[in-house]
Amino acid sequence: MWVDEDTADVVVQGWNADEALLAQCLKTGSIPPTEGVVRIPARMAALLREACDEAERRSAGL
User: Fold this and answer.
1) Number of separate domains in the chain
2) For the whole prediction, is pTM greater than 0.90?
3) Residue 40: exposure state from Cβ atoms within 10 A (0-12, 13-18, ≥19)
4) Which of 17, 21, 33, 49 fits a 20 to 30 Å CA distance from 42?
């Protein structure tokens, strides 16, 4: 996970969802062709929080 320097968006890299997870996600709605489902391991939660904090700082101009 990292923060895009230009947009302050959080960029996430993870494992592609398997068919079972995709089917589960499709129960709540469709997945647009420009989107995907990525599984983020629980052990990476702290990294996700750090990336979100950094994105917030950058978007606020800090």
Assistant:
1) 1
2) no
3) middle
4) 33
